[in-house]
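As agreed, record passed on underneath.
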Amino acid sequence: MNWKTAYRSLYYATMPEPADLALPRSETALLVIDIQNAYLDRPDRAALPPREQRHYDDWTPFHDRMREVVIPNVQRVLERFRAEGMEVIFARIACQTSNGRERSLSQKLPGFNNLLLPKDEHASQIVAELAPRGDEIVVTKTTDSALTGTNLRLMLNNIGIRHVVCAGIFTDQCVSSTVRSLADESFGVVVLDDCCAAATDELHRRELEILNNIYCHVMRADELWSQIA
C-alpha cells in the first residue's frame, strides 16, 4: 500500500487515486511542529508513586515512537530540505509572559493542554536533535494552529511558499489544527506519517484518516521525494 491508497476514510473509499503532486522546490517548505523538550523530557519512573508510574507507562509507546521513529525521520527530512536549499520552518508553543496570561483559552483550561511554557525556559525549546540552524524561521504560538496563532501566513506568502510539508506533534492536536488552517488558506499540504505522533498509535492513525485527501495528502518520508519537482 502506498500514499495514494493508504489512510482512506469512508469518504474516499471509492475515489480514484490522486495524481502525483509535483511540488516545486522553490514553493515548498517543511514545517516542524512542537517537537519541544516539554513533551520529550521524562521524570525518573522509580521516584513516582504507583498511580503516576502507570501513567508513565501509558506514555511509553509515544516516547518510543518519538525516539525510534519520528525524531530520526525528521532529522533525515531536515537534512534533505537543507541540502536542496528548500525552506525549513519551525513552530513551537511558548508564551511571551511568565504567567502565560496571553495564552489562548485552550491552553488555560484544566488538563493535558494546560501549558505554561515561557519562551526562554528549557521546556519550551525545540529538542536539540532538531535545533534550527542559521536563519531558519521559528514561529512562537499560544494556539494549536501555527497559522492562526502567528504571522506564518504572511511569511509563507512573502517567500512564495504554496505547499507545506508538515511533521511534528501531536497529530490529532496542533498538527491537525495547522493542517486544516493551511488548507483553508489554499496551501497544498503534505503530512508525513512517520514524522508525526499522537498520544497513541490509534489516535495518530485515525486522525490521519480524517485529514487525508480532504485537507492534505498523507505519505511516508521516503515517498515525499518522488513528489518534489
Remarks:
- The longest strand covers residues 188-197.
- The two ends are 23 Å apart (CA to CA).
